[in-house]
């Protein structure tokens, strides 16, 4: 009997997971990556007897039954156009893995805050005794988790790119945290197209599901009335949080946050959404309150690094867009020396003018091309330029006084000087530790 062909495009974490799950489900699997495949991934494919190619798609089967593609591959790629012309089903790894699990799903999407909210929901469920797994855009293959484990629940971080290639994916609880301009090059520079992609998280949900969303987000509110929402909608907003207490109108619960190591107004929304999700999943309110203080925030997200001579150094390298930097600047009441810059993604810095005027003492531009930052804030603040993290820390320290904050919150991608935002954050940490 001839096996159905499964073509996996991309041999990263999600691609390898999809290939392994496909093999276990009886597919004839082939992995094709236009780039170079990591040595450990090649070894795993060889051990499993899965054929592959790297550096091209020349050997990829032309008529597979299913294609699982990496989220990084756009629909405009020639291989995708060719496969679509041959009527191949093209799925994201999320869609493919979903078809082989009966577990309940909590899925989180949004432009900012996805990882923190996803990990907090997972933490609340796990600490409350749920048999729960964590996967998705967070860097853990959903397919591999489905293959290797038998969880009752999954908490999944979902990107717009993954939602673009779903067909049946229907979470039991979905969260839409916010929609702000990001990755617009994949959506014809049209935020409405990007928003429609985010809202696809709802399209297969039933009336039994729960949809948790921000009531403060302009782009969510602009689109929400145009959509037939079947699940029960639970909005959250800034009024939930007041003086270290979160009052949830759902089930009439209140939670205190005096011990929670998450700062800033954006994290108030993230915590609101996470708690609503946990309550919706059936976690007891008392268990949530017990679990909150032990949650540790993500590295490179408003991460306290060190205090030297009364100056606190904060690593927020994950802030790769303007809104994330805005929330970071709003998170502190003391004067800020702001380290910003990198690869600009079409940023509109006018959104930051008021926050910079009120909270920032001086700006250190860390990037190859700082012209947009200099044009945006040169009339407001003293500004410095550098292409060295060590020098950026030195300049910031020289211009800081006791009680000030030195904040790395770039509002830009990192690829001009660093491998990624993690590499940039690690250089910041190393330079601060050496003070």
From TrEMBL:
Q: Top-level EC class, please?
A: ligase
Pathway listed for it? Cell wall biogenesis; peptidoglycan biosynthesis
* InterPro entries reported in the protein's UniProt record: Folylpolyglutamate_synth_CS, Mur-like_cat_sf, Mur_ligase_C, Mur_ligase_C_dom_sf, Mur_ligase_cen, MurD
From the UniProt record, list the reaction(s) this protein catalyses.
UDP-N-acetyl-alpha-D-muramoyl-L-alanine + D-glutamate + ATP = UDP-N-acetyl-alpha-D-muramoyl-L-alanyl-D-glutamate + ADP + phosphate + H(+)
Major place of localization? cytoplasm
- A GO CC term attached to the entry: cytoplasm
* Binding-site residues for ATP, renumbered to this chain: 110-116
Family, as annotated: Belongs to the MurCDEF family.
Q: Which UniProt keywords are given for this protein, alphabetically ordered?
A: ATP-binding, Cell cycle, Cell division, Cell shape, Cell wall biogenesis/degradation, Cytoplasm, Ligase, Nucleotide-binding, Peptidoglycan synthesis
Gene3D superfamilies noted in UniProt: Mur ligase, C-terminal domain (3.90.190.20), Mur-like, catalytic domain (3.40.1190.10), NAD(P)-binding Rossmann-like Domain (3.40.50.720)
Listed GO molecular functions?
ATP binding; tetrahydrofolylpolyglutamate synthase activity; UDP-N-acetylmuramoylalanine-D-glutamate ligase activity
User: Where is the Mur ligase C-terminal domain positioned along the sequence?
Assistant: 300-412
User: What name goes with this protein?
Assistant: UDP-N-acetylmuramoylalanine--D-glutamate ligase
* Free-text function comment from the UniProt entry: Cell wall formation. Catalyzes the addition of glutamate to the nucleotide precursor UDP-N-acetylmuramoyl-L-alanine (UMA).
Q: Where is the Mur ligase central domain?
A: 108-278
Output the GO biological process annotations, alphabetical, semicolon-separated.
Answer: cell division; cell wall organization; peptidoglycan biosynthetic process; regulation of cell shape
Q: Name one Pfam family in it.
A: Mur_ligase_M
Q: Where in the cell is it found?
A: Cytoplasm
Native source organism of the sequence: Flammeovirga pacifica
What EC number(s) would the UniProt record show?
Answer: 6.3.2.9
- HAMAP family, sorted: MurD
